[in-house]
Amino acid sequence: MKLYAAMFFATLSMPLASLAGILAMELGYVWSIRQAIGVGVLVGSVILIVSVITFLSSIPSTVRRLRHQTRVSNDTN
After folding, report:
1. DSSP code of residue 77
2. Nearest Cα residue to 51 out of 9, 3, 2, 1
């Protein structure tokens, strides 16, 4: 399940980063387009870091599940 969550976060990172930059400029938190792009890059980077951490934490359970499937398929043959 963590693997799917990581892919979901990575897929949403660019649209959310764009929206964050646009909203920061519209709401008056930043005054120039360069600052809005910086906010978008910051938000996108944080989301991608979270997705990489989630992906890395899902690797042990994925390997365990694959070993179990291989063991079961070898026992039936």
Report:
1. -
2. 9
* Token pair in block for residue 66: 């694959």
What angle (nearest 5°) sits at the alpha carbon of residue 24, between those of residues 42 and 17? 40
pTM to 2 decimal places: 0.74
How does pLDDT run across 26-74, given as a tens digit for each residue? 999 999 999 999 999 999 999 999 988 988 888 887 777 777 777 777 7
Provide the 3-class DSSP secondary structure of residue 56.
helix
Give me the DSSP letters along 16-38: HHHHHHHHHHHTTS-SSHHHHHH
